[in-house]
Amino acid sequence: MLESLTGFVVVGVAIIVGWILGRIDLLGAHARPVLARLTFFVLSPFLLFVVLAQADVRTLFSALLPVSAIAAVAVIAVYAFIARLVWRRPLGEIVIGALSAGQVNSNNIGIPLSLYLLGSAAYPAPVILMQLLLFTPITMAILDAVTAGRSSLWQSVGRVVGNPIVLGSVLGTLVSVLGVDLPPIVMEPAQLIANACVPILLIAYGISLHGQRVLGSSGRRRDIVLATVLKLVAMPVVAWAVAEFVFGLHPHDVLIVTVLAALPTAQNVFNYSQRYDVGETISRDTVFLTTVGCIPVLFAVTLLLG
Fold first, then answer.
1. pLDDT tens across 114-135, in order?
2. Integer Cα distance of 104 and 275 in angstroms
3. Which residue from 81, 71, 78 is spatially nearest to 104, judged by alpha carbons?
4. How far is CA 90 from the centre of its chain?
5. Burial of 17 (0-12, 13-18, 19+ CB in 10 A)
6. What is the DSSP code string of 128-180?
7. What is the predicted pLDDT for the residue at 5?
């Protein structure tokens, strides 16, 4: 069980390095936006292409996919309902908060934890596929419309289709589905660039933590708490119930989807909030709280279902 902490240690060290860089101001005042643009436009598309291109099609479209989708959509809908109808939050903040509640860190934490806890690094692939081909286009379309002002339908579609993260995800999925065997001269350069994504993203997140206080006086404490509770408690419970009582999955598959649902909020949500300059406090604090809080949750899940 102690080996499962390896993924958290790796992530924690990278974040601490980023915090130190922010504290000593080594990279200057423009470090955060520059790293955010580098991650969003270059590194993330390469990473998502490589991960999805190498994924097993049978795993991508297994029963794990609909269960994970139902659990994510359920908590996203609950957050959006409360944030919109009760708290009257602006649309951009609702999108970031909803993603903070329902989009899991299926890559840089999900893959190593899946390997250590479940025995295979392939299990997060359906969640990665769902988030990138379903959530990402919708998210990009809404955030583009909110930040760019009024635009036509075709302009919104064009921005989503031309989004580098969407392009990388679609191309990677096509390679996997069509069974294309890309030669090393193509995959190795892509892998080299992809390998830089996670550490740079985590370092940028660490830099953003310097000078900030979690649950500070931002006026968004209840948004952060709601997103955190939905992510760490409601989403795993929904995933377990749907897998157990609706789909009747094998006990091992029930464990898989519950563990995946209990993963912390994806750092990509923070990347989106930085890129579009909306809801950054909500995403930053929720990522921090769920990354720390998911450790006891994951241990409890594996003890109860493993």
1. 766 776 667 887 888 788 778 8
2. 19
3. 71
4. 22
5. middle
6. HHHIIIIIHHHHHHHHHHHHH-S--HHHHHHHHHT-HHHHHHHHHHHHHHHT-
7. 64
**CB 137, CB 166: distance < 8 Å:** yes
State the Cα–Cα distance between residues 270 and 282, nearest whole angstrom: 9
217: tokens are: 């006086």
Query: Which DSSP letter does residue 217 get?
Result: S
Backbone angles phi, psi at 265, to 5 degrees: -60, 140
- The pTM of the full predicted model, rounded to 2 decimals, is 0.78
Q: How far apart are CA 211 and CA 201, in angstroms?
A: 18
Task: Copy the structure tokens of residue 174.
Answer: 């096509």
Residue 198 Cα to chain centre, angstroms: 12
Task: For residue 80, give both structure tokens.
Answer: 């959006």
Question: Cα 9 to chain center, whole Å?
Answer: 18
The closest alpha carbon to 4, from 263, 177, 285, 243, belongs to 263
- pLDDT of residue 112 exceeding 70: no
User: Side chain identity at 32, as an amino acid letter?
Assistant: R
**∠ at Cα 265 (118, 80), nearest 5°?**
125
CA 244 remoteness from chain centre: 25
Which sign, positive or negative, has the C-alpha torsion 58, 59, 63, 66? Answer: negative
Report the chain's C-alpha Rg in angstroms.
18
As a whole number of angstroms, the distance between CA 283 and CA 230 comes to 14
pLDDT at 142 over 80: yes
| Contact between residue 263 and residue 105 where contact means Cβ atoms under 8 Å apart | yes
CATH top class, domain 2-305:
mainly alpha
Both tokens of 34, joined, read 């520059």
Crossing angle of helices 251-261 and 280-305, in 10° steps, is 160
